[in-house]
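Researcher: We're teaching a course module on how sequence relates to structure. For the next exercise, students receive a sequence and then see the predicted structure as tokens, so they can try to spot secondary structure elements on their own. Here is the exercise chain.
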Amino acid sequence: MANIRKLQFNWRLMLVQIVANGLALGLTSLVLPGIHFQPQRMVVALLASGFIFGLLNAFIRPILQFIMFRFLFITFGLVLIVINILMLWLLARLTPGWFQSDSIWWTILAAILVGMLGVFFETLLGLRPPLRDDRPEARTMGRWFSLSGAPVQIPVFESAAEISDQPVSSDQSQEDRS
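Model: And here is the predicted structure for the students to work with:
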């Protein structure tokens, strides 16, 4: 029987995503002079913007990726920068006075930088699963990895030498005899 897990909302994961988004947005505002946050309440503005940016990435981004899916391969992923530009534009419209961009060029540079920093912080904070899983149960069911949040299973094909080295259980030996 298949092991079916019940999906539950993970508050810790959401909090780590808010922190990762806040860090990416904060570093972007430090590096790029055309991106500004409200200086009086910088920490609150970063956390609120990180929360809203996380919600935008959770709900709006998949819709935009679905719409622009065919262009994803044609442009070798450059359409993801366009999606990040739209996400930052929506963030600026939803948080007037907290997050501001001086021009479209600063928004384009910020989209590139936020994309790279977001992947870096999500990987650093453990939001993305590892590319290789060495747990014993992972060897039997395949390798799990993630490209942009969707888990993909790669089947494991063992060589004949690896199979012959493994001890045979009594159930397997009875099946081989029949």
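Model: If you want an answer key for the exercise: Residues 11-124 form one domain. Residues 141-148 have pLDDT under 50 and may be disordered.
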